[in-house]
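Slide 14.
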Amino acid sequence: MPDDPRLIGNPTAGAAKERTPEAGISEAFRMMSGLTQALADMGRSPFFDFGAFAGSYRHNMEAMSEASRVSMQGAQSLVRCEIDMTQQMMADLNEAMQLMVSAETPLARAARYAGLIRQMSERVVANERQMCDMIRNCQREAFDLLHRRALDTMTEIKEALEKNERHLAHAERV
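Slide 15: predicted structure.
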């Protein structure tokens, strides 16, 4: 019903459902299927293959979906890594606090404290390097997916143009 306020500008009316990335992807594929059917219903042109166009578009959407999935997994891994690093840092700080109240001589405490500070600094640098590597690898994987799809799209366009050229040449002979 078009007059239903839940369908027009009131997203909170009615049963509220939380949208997930999977729901958005499923919705996009349903829309793509509808577009494919609409193009097929328009009829086939001998000079333009609507099915090939729709198939190419579907492959592009699948590649975007896969790149998004890779990025999301990378973000989740990054958060898990950050949690582990924070827990380690808290353990290091706890050790430093215990060292400050220990019964050692001030000189022995200072020497142990300097060693602890050095270990913490080295760990922070190693952790940051690890996180940078994780981000770089995730970005590279997502980019490679999209790059491969872009190259495939160019190949599909070239093949479609060559096919159209053959159809035109055949039509001129007839």
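Speaker note: The chain has one domain: 21-173.
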